[in-house]
Inverse folding.
């Protein structure tokens, strides 16, 4: 290599995990979406755009500024410093988060046990890094699993073990079996990561019984539960189940949350409740939250003070009752999910479902439906869908440990108008019919090939 031409890095000089499809999935989807801006976006699980008004931002910051002055008694210099300087590594809206968690989720949390983070993704990264202390530690994950945790584990070099979901969600017996298998191999099951409410991607919501059984398994196998709850504030009375952390009596649950789905995704404000006690090198004891803050001080340093001010203003306006304030959004997402399920019924009536082998999940709420199809779904299928059919979705292979071929795709309805949902499902149905027909043609062609054709070719 001629150094005058510039120094290039070969793939052997980079972290091998960077080549994992999980890490490239979001980039691939963004690249395809940018090439096909008019394709109906049934891939992204983002909130609906019309819920946001830029004109509200100054007022929200003003509300938080008055809170600092009138309720916390800070003077002008202290208020200015709180809004413009770096601030505490653990964040400065912990008390407002704690009040909201108490009102909406029944979680009693000391503000000192809360770390305000740059999105829930940082919570997954810092929690996984803190808990997995040696190469023998294994992180259990649901299968399928949110790609953010799979990617974080891959970057950290943490081994994951999949616990397959059943048709009705995660079973405690399956968690226990995987944990026991890990221990029998001389490894240590550290924690189980799960999304108990309207899981991404499967859409499952765990029942109260399932949650209590998981807590029992965690205690038996000396594990923690990492509860990722981005959708909990969007649960209405018909499908609201107590958070795992609200049921936690012996600090078995680390609770990760975010205000991205309910308040302001662009603010990138998430949080972790980590009240577990830890031993310190000097012989003292502290909180896991303090250790998470220490880790994030070397990553993002702290969360944007202005972003925290905006979220703080929103929590103040709703009096710490975010679920109640979100009723309009809850109704929108429930309506969209109902429309998506009805559109699938219309495009795939029983006779068609039987003929093509098509089925889908039936979540009670949330953003996502998983569609099972009779052909392999991969990146090339997604490109075809965008180019020829004008609709985007997520291949389910992204959500499994190790990836691999899957005959499933995830449809999201959160960011769409009713007309887009109907048209999007119509386009997906056209794709399914054509690809299923091609699959059948290929099987027929294979059946006519002589057995020794490969040797004669």
């Amino acid at each position: 290599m001629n150094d005058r031409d510039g120094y290039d890095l070969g793939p052997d000089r980079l972290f091998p995990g960077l080549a994992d499809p999980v890490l490239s999935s979001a980039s691939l989807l963004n690249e395809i979406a940018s090439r096909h801006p008019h394709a109906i976006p049934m891939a992204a699980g983002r909130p609906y755009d019309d819920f946001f008004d830029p004109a509200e931002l100054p007022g929200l910051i003003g509300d938080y500024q008055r809170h600092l002055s009138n309720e916390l008694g800070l003077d002008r210099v202290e208020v200015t410093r709180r809004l413009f300087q770096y601030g505490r590594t653990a964040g400065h809206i912990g008390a407002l988060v704690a009040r909201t968690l108490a009102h909406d989720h029944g979680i009693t949390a000391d503000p000192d046990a809360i770390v305000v983070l740059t999105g829930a993704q940082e919570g997954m990264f810092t929690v996984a890094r803190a808990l997995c202390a040696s190469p023998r530690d294994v992180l259990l994950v649901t299968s399928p699993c949110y790609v953010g945790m799979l990617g974080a584990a891959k970057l950290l070099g943490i081994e994951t073990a999949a616990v397959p979901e059943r048709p009705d969600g995660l079973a405690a017996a399956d968690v226990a079996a995987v944990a026991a298998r890990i221990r029998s191999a001389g490894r240590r099951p550290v924690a189980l990561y799960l999304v108990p409410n309207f899981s991404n991607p499967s859409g499952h919501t765990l029942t109260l019984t399932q949650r209590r059984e998981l807590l029992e398994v965690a205690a038996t196998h000396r594990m923690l539960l990492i509860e990722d709850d981005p959708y909990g504030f969007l649960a209405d009375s018909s499908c609201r189940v107590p958070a795992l952390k609200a049921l936690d009596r012996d600090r078995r649950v680390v609770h990760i949350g975010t205000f991205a789905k309910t308040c302001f995704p662009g603010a990138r404000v998430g949080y972790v409740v980590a009240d577990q006690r830890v031993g310190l090198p000097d012989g003292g004891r502290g909180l896991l939250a303090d250790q998470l803050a220490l880790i994030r001080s070397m990553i993002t340093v702290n969360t944007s003070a202005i972003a925290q001010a905006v979220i703080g203003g929103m929590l103040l306006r709703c009096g710490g009752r975010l679920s109640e304030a979100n009723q309009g959004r809850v109704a929108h997402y429930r309506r969209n999910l109902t429309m998506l399920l009805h559109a699938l019924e219309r495009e795939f009536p029983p006779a068609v479902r039987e003929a093509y082998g098509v089925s889908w999940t039936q979540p009670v709420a949330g953003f996502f439906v998983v569609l099972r199809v009779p052909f392999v779904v991969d990146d090339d299928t997604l490109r075809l869908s965008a180019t020829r059919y004008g609709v985007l979705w997520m291949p389910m292979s992204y959500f499994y440990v190790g990836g691999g071929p899957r005959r499933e795709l995830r449809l999201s309805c959160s960011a769409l108008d009713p007309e887009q949902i109907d048209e999007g499902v119509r386009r997906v149905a056209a794709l399914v019919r054509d690809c299923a027909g091609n699959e059948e043609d290929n099987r027929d062609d294979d059946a006519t090939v002589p057995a020794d054709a490969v040797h004669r070719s």
